[in-house]
Amino acid sequence: MVRISIAREHGNILSVIAHYYELTQPRIIPLLLVVTAASMWIASSGKVDPMLLLWTLTGSTLASASAQTLNCIYDRDIDYSMERTRHRPIPSGKIEPIHALIFGIVLAAASFYLLAAFVNLFSALLAMLGIVFYVVVYTHFLKRHTPLNIVIGGAAGGMSALVGWAAVTGTISSTAWWIFLILFLWTPPHFWALALTLRDDYAKVGIPMLPAVSGNIETGRQIFTYTVLLILSTFLMYDPLQITGAFYMCAAFILGAIFLQKAWAVLENPNNQTTAHNLFTYSIYYMILLCLSMVVDSLPITNQLLQRIQQM
Ligand code: HEM
Ligand SMILES: CC(C)=CCC/C(C)=C/CC/C(C)=C/COP(=O)(O)OP(=O)(O)O
């Protein structure tokens, strides 16, 4: 009997932990960390201190988890009404909003402490700014009020690049702003592609996402426009700034061409949900691979290989 009740209690604790984990929307965090790590890599010219990387990524994880948790508290009413989100821990009654609030504040405080103590104060302040921007500016002021929500909200994701840069250099240089810009311009095609498949769900709860307000054709046009701007912005990281080299440039070109082709398919057929979902999925791989190519580009072995190819 005692064994059974201990096992049951153990199971309960595990399921509580699982609910809190789910509250942080963990699937989005790795991509934010990839951006932060790439930014740190470039800022340190490929010689990033492993401990600094570890503390920065830990602090950034806690900051993102806090931001997502606070967003889930604020949006619990619409999350309850939307098919995609009604199983989240707060709308499904697994976690009380007040407990989530305490959890979100503890995460933010832990993030601030770790970044300020083991990285630097500036990166800690930027991470807090990221939380405030996402929760107050995007979730409170924009999301329910304007179809520009996603365009301006893209700055929240861009903050992860600034945190990474500030962690290494203690400042924000123009290169950090280029990476910020890439994230900023990537967000509309990333999200609107998905929004094309969720139009009715958003319309039902009165969220003015672009497809619900302006229709699929206009959304397809805007996706294409932002994709072109995104690809151009990735080229800015090459000459004359000399930040990245030929390897990055080739990768940016090929990855961008695929993005453009998929955005074109959406433009041609904005009512096709498979095409739109295809673009959404690709947008995630695109960002991972683009960041990876920045890292590979700055490895000494890449330069040696490129020089050998040139000499041949
Ligand atoms: C205003 C900005 C953004 C909005 C509105 C948005 C919205 C969304 C939505 C609604 C999903 C689907 C999640 C689900 O299935 O429940 C999603 C997925 C995802 N987003 Fe975003 N996103 C934004 C910015 C970002 C940023 C900045 C990143 C990271 C750099 C990111 C990374 C991801 C990833 C990795 C997924 C896939 C998660 C999965 O496996 O389901 N998103 N996004
Ligand atoms: C440095 C730092 C802490 C930056 C914060 C970055 C951050 C948490 C970005 C999240 C972007 C995102 C997934 C928005 C979706 O919100 P939504 O409310 O539209 O999506 P939902 O409907 O799935 O809740």
From TrEMBL:
Belongs to the UbiA prenyltransferase family. Protoheme IX farnesyltransferase subfamily. Its EC number is 2.5.1.141. It is a multi-pass membrane protein. Pathway: Porphyrin-containing compound metabolism; heme O biosynthesis; heme O from protoheme: step 1/1. One of its GO terms (molecular function) is protoheme IX farnesyltransferase activity. One of its GO terms (cellular component) is plasma membrane. Gene3D superfamilies: UbiA prenyltransferase. It is found in: Cell membrane. Converts heme B (protoheme IX) to heme O by substitution of the vinyl group on carbon 2 of heme B porphyrin ring with a hydroxyethyl farnesyl side group. This is Protoheme IX farnesyltransferase. Signal peptide: none annotated. InterPro entries: Protohaem_IX_farnesylTrfase (IPR006369), UbiA_prenyltransferase (IPR000537), UbiA_prenylTrfase_CS (IPR030470), UbiA_sf (IPR044878). PANTHER family: 4-HYDROXYBENZOATE SOLANESYLTRANSFERASE, PROTOHEME IX FARNESYLTRANSFERASE, MITOCHONDRIAL. Keywords: Cell membrane, Heme biosynthesis, Membrane, Transferase, Transmembrane, Transmembrane helix. Carbon 2 of the heme B porphyrin ring is defined according to the Fischer nomenclature. It catalyses: heme b + (2E,6E)-farnesyl diphosphate + H2O = Fe(II)-heme o + diphosphate.
